[in-house]
């Protein structure tokens, strides 16, 4: 599997901020990248598949973009419920995670 | 309701064995690739092992090859994970997850997860 690397590892933000998390692949993975949100004591939740496809029920403030080797997850206006850890994933590899904290 | 429920976790000594079970409801596991994903305490998420829809294809991360076995129980609509020769570093919450493969040939994500079951390997 092709490794993916996330940055930053931690991000401090305010409610209402626009937040961007980056995921980079060591070689092209086309658009085969997913994003997850995980809250404490919960399983990860799929937010976005195929780089930009918003899963059913996920708020529209979440968006994904990118292709090839560089991808981003953007939260357009951070809400209190969005403070969590976010992971990118390609096939059998997950990124290291980005903790979004207040 | 579409859901996955894991069971079988617990405390086991190094070198021991444990079998986890994942019961599916609301869908048939025969129609999906199924995976086990784990998360060590305070750490990130790691994919462990998977099985295709008809049980003919299996793959796993190198660290569990030869020790972990994934299988289906079609009668119970469940997926099992037999873990042998357990090591301290196998300590984690183990999640059962359904793979999203719209085109059929590539993992696009894990769209359904169980609540997880904790496996602790310690003497």
Jot down its keywords.
heterodimer; A: 102 residues; mainly beta; 7-stranded mixed β-sheet; 4-stranded antiparallel β-sheet; 49% strand; B: 123 residues; 0% helix; globular
Structure description:
The complex is a heterodimer of chains A (102) and B (123). Chain A contains no helices and eleven strands. Chain A is an all-beta fold. In chain A, the strands form two sheets. In chain A, strands 2, 4, 5, 6, 9, 10 and 11 form a seven-stranded mixed sheet that branches. In chain A, strands 1-3-8-7 form a four-stranded antiparallel sheet, with no helix packed on it. The radius of gyration of chain A is 12 Å and the shape is globular. Chain A starts with a strand and ends with a strand. In chain B, the strands form two sheets. In chain B, strands 2, 4, 5, 6, 9, 10 and 11 form a seven-stranded mixed sheet that branches. In chain B, a hairpin with a 5-residue loop joins strand 4 (34-39) and strand 5 (45-51). In chain B, 0% of the residues lie in helices and 50% in strands. Chain B is globular and about 45 Å long. The model of chain B has no long low-confidence stretch (mean pLDDT 95). The chains are: A mainly beta (102), B mainly beta (123). Chains A and B meet through strand 4, strand 5 and strand 10 of A and strand 5 and strand 10 of B.
Structural class of chain B: mainly beta
Percentage of residues in DSSP E strands of chain A? over 45%
Percentage of β-strand residues of chain B: over 45%
Distinct helical segment count of chain A: 0
Oligomer: heterodimer
Query: Uncertain spans of chain A, ≥5 residues at pLDDT below 50?
Result: none
Radius of gyration of chain A: 12 Å
The count of helical stretches of chain B stands at 0
Order of helix and strand elements from N to C terminus of chain A: EEEEEEEEEEE
Largest sheet descriptor of chain B: 7 strands, mixed
Please estimate the helix content of chain A.
Answer: under 10%
Distance between the termini of chain A: 34 Å
Q: Would you report the number of β strands of chain A?
A: 11
Rounded mean pLDDT of chain B is 95
State the end-to-end distance of chain B: 39 Å
- Most extensive protein-chain contact, per-chain counts: A-B, 20 and 20 residues
Give the mean pLDDT of chain A. Answer: 97
Quick one: how many beta strands of chain B? Answer: 11
Are there runs of chain B of 5+ residues with pLDDT below 50, and where?
A: none
